[in-house]
Amino acid sequence: MSAQSRGGRLVSRAEIAELAGVRPSAVTNWERRHGSFPQELREGGRELFRLADIVRWLDVRRVPSPSRHPEEPADITFGDRVRASLGQYEGASAPDQAAQSAVPARNSEQERSRSRQALSELLEREMQEAWGARSPAAYLPLLMCLTFLRWGAEEEWAALKELAEGHPSVVPKSFIDEVGQRTGQWLQKSGVASAGWPALQGLEPGPAADAPRLLALVAELGREAFRDLLDSFANVVAVGSREAFTPKAVVTLLSELVATEGVSGRISDPYPRGGELLAAMVAASSDAEALTVSMGVTNPSMARMAAMNLAIHGVSPQLEDHGGALQPADGSLQQPGANFVLANPPFNADTGRIDSGNWRYGPPPASNDNFAWLQHVLSTLGPGGRAGVIMADNAAVSDQPRERAIRRAMVEDGVVECVLALPPQLFSGTAVSACAWFLTTPSDRAEVHFINARELGEMVSRTRRELSPDDVRLLGEIHRSLRDGTALPDDARRIGRSVAVEEIKERGHSLSPVDYVSVGTYVEATPEKTEAARRELDLAQGDAVTRDEEVRSLWARAEALGYGENRRPGDWRSVLLGELCSVTAGPSPSLLNPKMYSETGDVPVLLPKHLRNRRLHGGEDSKVSKRVALRLERFRVSEGDILCSRTGTVGPVALVGSEEGGHLYSGNLLRLHNFKLGVDSRFVLAHLSLPEVQAWIKDRAAMTTVDSIKTSAMKQVPVSLPPLEVQRRIGDLLHTLDRQIEAHHRVASAAEVAREELAMLLVGGVASRNTRRPTPDGPSNLDRSTAKEIAGE
Asked: What's 647's DSSP letter?
């Protein structure tokens, strides 16, 4: 019997390269560098490999960002590529059934769905109480340790499973002790000081604690669940700004803008927090095992979490402990410099522990660590290295003599490539605004790129703002355009600009993007534009008058329907939403994500931001190609469907009109469709819009780690349903009121535009940009009393 018949299809190195979409040399490098690469077989004098073994090996290796095709999701692996080539990925056709049968099937969305479901069950109050935790802060460390062991410590995880499954009556307290000991032992072997896990020692599990069930749920968690647990832990213990984890969107932004050509070589983070920046770089690499990862040791708690996070992503970091003093790297360890450094050090810290070493650009002031961090990062870069550092705003404009002198020296030495002003309220634990500094090794750079992203992002709570994937993608495009000297996208010209070093010198070496890029620029008004704005206002007012008359004629019908106690309760019945219609979640990120959107796309994608006042507005800013839409056919909406926001700002609903029929909807939305006979979707929309129903939905969403309403929970929404004729009357009236509201919003918007155009035409003149001219060189008058610091007097 041949090897082919015994183990399925065999492939050569050249075939592996073709299926995975790489060069043959990449396959040779994988084989040479990794001892885990599948063993070759001899068949008819040829060196071949079992296809199934190759796919399993490639399943843990993500395609790096620069190598991904436009239609490929961010988390696609080379294993997925092989399946796609065989027609076995995301619903593609299946031309080679024999080949496919040898390939282990993988459904990324099913895996993520199981992970989310398992995490939701693990975070339920009943589980917390069963394991003897008085609060989430006491319970979450247990889940973090187990998730770490599941993904980062294979032998320890296997031993735990054997203990729980081989001894069903294992004492839960002993099981917890075993989890803490095995986690601590692994950390100690890795060089991370472990003082044990006091939180675990304080757990007093009750009779309902079930170790096998706990392990079974953790086994369903994906690697990304560890970040969700970190965020949950940070929220419940209210960590300060020095320990708070870097927001996910900022992590993505830094990693993509620093590693523009892919991740390889040595990567480092001197202040790792939860290891989130390094973990993102590792995940973006196609060959994590070939990376050398190092991190600073700032405090034991952060070091433990960061080391666990990185182990989950398959790497064990080298630890760098400088004895608590900030200093430039002196090369005494005889280690090569880093290819990439990412850091989010504490803002404006005053540790008093700045070393008096050989600072290339001058000694930082003892009162603020900002420029000690920047210079430390630069000193660790190897030839051609790149860095991204989050800095408080004031570092870019400070008039403190030493800081301004360091800024000037850095600009003149060509190490500042770009400064990006981030939106306010991104970071928990602090209200300080921040900038991202992108640095390189010294060069003869003649300009610095500035990006002003202050107005991007959306408020997701009263105090927190988040950047959307669209925002991150736009900022990446701007950065690439400025760096490559190509034309900026139309929507980016007002927030990105390259500035000559001479102009920076004229402005006192300010590196604040707001000094160079004004987001308030506008086009000068003309009589023609003003007249067009007036006509639009007239049209809007006329439409509003029509809607007002419609509402007046219908209002008497509301009285006929009866209010409150006057309503006939016997005609109404109590049902659940799931009995009235189908509830379907949108496509997963593996099927549809913002990187697939294009201005030249064919089919609009409806997003949560398009749901306003129970109607849909927009969709033209997020389109996908016909090819992408074809495989998402089941996610097209029809007139009369209802869309509901399911994540983030949970609850808003909107009715799909005739204009939106055939559009796609995103994974952040739920679709209510296939309404049963005797059900009017406009009435259901009115019911879901009620304050008490919105509160019901938000309460259920708040039970999860990240606010999100499940499909199963949405089906349980209680509905009081009247006869169909009453539904239609109520639906007609409230739908007409919604159109009246929309008409008056249009009037307000048109009036605002008309006023702005008229004001510019009447007042005349465009405000001059960039009028502030700081003193070009030397300290300001206010700083002369401290100028002696520069000279060390």
From this structure: B
Please, what sign has the CA dihedral across residues 334, 340, 346, 348? positive
Tokens of 679: 């059900």
Q: Residue 336: what residue type?
A: P
Residue-wise DSSP of 48-94:
EEEHHHHHHHHTT-BPPGGG--TTS-TT-BHHHHHHHHTT-STT---
Q: With a cut of 80, say whether residue 73 has pLDDT above it.
A: no
Name the phi and psi angles at 775, rounded to 5: -60, 125
User: What element of type H or E holds 233?
Assistant: helix 225-237
61: left (phi over 0), alpha (psi -120 to 50) or beta: beta
Judged on CB neighbours under 10 Å (0-12, 13-18, 19+), 784 is: exposed
State which H helix or E strand residue 284 sits in: helix 276-284
SS3 322: coil
Residues 124 and 213: beta-carbon distance below 8 Å:
no
Q: Which of 233, 650, 296 is nearest to 428 (CA)?
A: 233
Query: Which stretch of 89-103, 496-510, 546-560 has the lowest confidence by average pLDDT?
Result: 89-103
User: Which of residues 453 and 620 earns the better pLDDT score?
Assistant: 453
Q: pLDDT tens for residues 111-158?
A: 777 888 888 889 888 889 999 888 888 899 999 999 999 998 888 898
- Residue 438 sits at the vertex; the CA angle it makes with 433 and 442, to the nearest 5 degrees, is 140
Tell if the pTM clears 0.85, that is, is over it. Answer: no
321 closest CA partner among 272, 384, 391, 387: 272
